[in-house]
Known about the structure:
Elements: H1 2-19, E1 31-35, H2 42-58, E2 62-66, H3 73-80, E3 88-93, H4 94-102, H5 110-113, E4 114-129, H6 138-147, E5 153-156, H7 162-174, E6 179-182, H8 186-194, E7 200-204, H9 205-213, E8 218-222, E9 248-256, H10 261-276, H11 278-287, E10 289-291, H12 296-317
Parallel strand pairs: 1-2, 1-3, 5-6, 5-7
Antiparallel strand pairs: 3-9, 4-7, 4-8, 4-9, 4-10
Amino acid sequence: MRQLLARTFAVAMLALCASSPNAQDYPARPVKIVVPFDAGGPADVYARFLGQRLQEALGQPFVVENRPGAGSLIGTEAVAKSAPDGYTLLLMSNTHTVNESLVPNKPYSLLRDFVAIAPINSSDLVLVVNPNVAATNVGELIKLAKTRPGALNYASSGTGTPYHMAGELFKAMAGVDIVHVPYKGSGGARTGVLGGQVDMMFDAVPTMVEHVRAGKVRALGTSGKDPSPVLTGVPTIAESGVPGYEAVIWLGVLAPKGTPPAVVGKLNAEIAKIASRPDVRQEWSQRGAIPMTMSADEFNRFLADDIAKWERIVKLSGAKPDQ
């Protein structure tokens, strides 16, 4: 009986090892990177940037699939339900850490249903207005908003996104009443401001900087602690009438819970190599993006801390899922 049990156990272990990818043979087929946002935004841009370089390094295609909708919930749920084999990854942003408190009844929980792989980069946001708005700086915008409560509006790529929460934080800290206009993605929100259908928006510096330089929108302030090196002459919002204001967008990669540690470690190492390359750092710097490198465990702790931070901001701003 003991010999039978031993043989059965050995066969089971061999089958398990054969079915579980390891660092040596991964990836053996194409890998899908799900972006739960529309094309053209920072998550999409950097997913494609990262996918191309992972393909060059690992020898298999890393295919980007955009699955936008419901403030990232649709694509994220799909990844949570995927096989934990390293062949379906999630390109996430701090939309996901916001949604942990903003949308409590989600079909998944970030720390329960996913494993952290690696961060990618972070970017400041820039507050821009359509040139028809009679404000040339943050102070004038605040004054205009206070004299016309509820008359001005701001676009975002959807509830819970960094653009939405930056606006809600601005409303709370500046004491103004401006109306949130959620779009299905950042491309639509950007188009709405450029076309004058919406008065303003907070957008990631890398995706808005060329429109600012072309004079299609007016940049009033950036959201970081320090002025943006790619938007010279544009002050921070904190030094322009809203002391202490700070909001950024950052990106990272997750996988379904249960993804083999060897695969997580290999992906973490390769993404860190990409983010540390001098040519990549220079290219991202020119766009206003700052590389982020952490171990998988460090990134997991970062996620937990960011969830706690945004829980406090959601309470401060009074933001609701249906805004």
